[in-house]
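BACKBONE GEOMETRY TOKENS:
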Amino acid sequence: MKFPLYLPGREDSKNDNCKILAGDIGGTKTHIGWFVSKDGGVELLNERVYPSMEYASFSDILREFIRDNKYEAPDRICIGVSGPVINGKVITTNLPWSLDSALLQQEFRTERVDLINDLEATAYGLAGIDDEFLVSIYSGCKNMKGNVAILAPGTGLGEAGLFWDGEFLRPFATEGGHSEFSPRNNLEVEFYQFLMQIYGIVSWEHVISGPGLFNIYRFLRDIKKHEEPAWLTQRFEEDDPAAVINHTALRELHPACTLAMEMFVDFMAREAANLVLKLKATGGLLLGGGIPPKIYSFLNKDKFHSSFVMSDKMEHLLKDIPIKMILNSRTALEGAAFYGAYSR
């Protein structure tokens, strides 16, 4: 499946052999890669993953990466960042960092620095993605054209779109993950009230993310009084709670974890439908981020799709939408490299 991304610089030979330092900043980890551009593509020569919270600033990570690999200044830098980029500046959503493209350009002595949203970077990564890294969840109508939506739950909830101009797909960022969550039934009203006591304003990110999955489980445990065995309490103390819930649900070891995962999948399908409808994404829905590949067995079931197509008036549109999952964990990193090399 090929995505005709709008990258006008791919046809210009002057963009060959550029050294590009690309990054993908997430709340949990920051992925850095050293690329070289050639023949409209990008080649990854070196990469490293850093624990984001262990660094005071993003510049500290870049300096360490360049120093450890004895690199000279790159020709271009492009970073996908979790947060809204405004006029070349961004305050990260889930980290205590602020980035400024002009200051980074001055510090690292490079010809150009681009900051783009991390989901926008994911969208640009589709320029080079192989079919083996796209798994079909629902085939839909294969001949549909139009806008494309991306929903990507991980540490937070990322949402983006690709506008179809009749010839190319043009990625754009959104901050839809921070729009307000809406309950549908009495149980979900109780869940909403539980979250409101914690957060005040309840966003979809509080529900569809790693912390969101634990929020669902905590509601079932603390409000609906599902018992938690001692072995599960210990697992939560030793490991990431979302990973524990997923592992436990997959093996059907505890009913509250299974129910939490089923609710999570239902919420994810509903917000995916919201995004598709708002963007009129007849070209398809892509599921990205760190969570979907880990819960594939839950997503590849009728329940996810039946929740996705449920609508008061738009079931006929939603049932034709193809749904695919992105498996390549480097998609956002490669997308940042593509943008740095060929965006202009």
Observations:
- The mean pLDDT is 95.
- Residues 255-279 form the longest helix (25 residues).
- The CA atoms of residues 229 and 254 lie 9 Å apart.
